[in-house]
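User: Show me a protein chain along with its predicted structure.
Assistant: Here is one chain, sequence first, then structure tokens.
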Amino acid sequence: MAHSRAAGWLVSLLGLVACGGGGGVEINPEREVVANRWNAILATPSQLAGVVQIKGTGWMMGDEKDPGETIAFVSIANAVPGGEHPWHVHLGRCGVDRGIFGPAQNYRVLQVDGKGRAEAKAELAVPAPSAGEYFINVHASVNNMRTILACGNLAPPSR
């Protein structure tokens, strides 16, 4: 009996770790999945494995108050405290960049807190897309825009 309880506990623990539980990005209303949002899970590219391991979430959606605008949001965890990282929504998918979506200056730089977390929202003066490929990336710094610390493809809303 104790053996089967221990095995059940181990299976539960492994499932929690495999799904990113225990230390993952917290969920709050800004990050919950909503039917009309494009949603992304961000992770560090494999070539940086062992150097950094940032994870996060992001989304974009049309502004309910102004149909000509798009709101984008990103949240990261496990970053170096004190870091400052530019981020953008791009056209294309991770590894296939076709340019920034909306005005680049509208994306506020992520300011990483003492716990390695940061989040930011951008208001973009462009209508939300209804189709296509988009992704969110997080750059190493203003002076090192080529190094991508985290990337996530945006899944289109279910309609």
